Amino acid sequence: MKIDINQEKCLGCGFCKERVPSIFFLDGYAARLTELGENIDDGNEILIRQLKEAAEICPAQTLKVG
Ligand code: SF4
After folding, report:
1. Residue 56: which CATH number?
2. Measuring CA to CA, how many Å separate 36 from each of 17, 21, 33, 39?
3. CA of 31 to the centre of ligand 1 (A)
4. Each residue of 19-50: pLDDT tens digit?
5. Where are the alpha helices (DSSP H) in 1-66?
């Protein structure tokens, strides 16, 4: 499982961080991945579902999960 954040499109709203704080953090005006976010456990179904929800609520549609 890999997450891609398009830094140029990110609005820095923080919705992804609020939804999955273990995976995202805000660095200035853009979201970035935590260390855990760089190494997603494919077997963690709850986390995977949360990540997909974060991608859905991202107002800039800038998160790719897959
Ligand atoms: S929800 Fe989307 S636009 Fe908002 S901080 Fe996260 S990646 Fe950026």
Report:
1. 3.30.70.20
2. 13, 10, 8, 5
3. 6
4. 999 999 999 899 999 999 999 988 999 999 99
5. 15-19, 35-38, 45-57
pLDDT (average), residues 5-31: 96
pLDDT of residue 41: 87
**Average pLDDT in the 39-66 region?**
95
Q: Is the shortest distance between the CB of 60 and ligand 1 below 6 Å?
A: yes
How close is the Cα of 44 to the center of ligand 1, in Å? Answer: 22
Mutate to test the pocket of ligand 1, among 3, 7, 15 (most ligand atoms within 8 A of CB): 15
Q: 31 CB under 6 A from ligand 1?
A: yes
Q: Provide the number of structural domains found in the chain.
A: 1
Look at the block and give the residue holding tokens 């499109």.
Answer: 9
Residue range of the domain that includes 37: 3-65
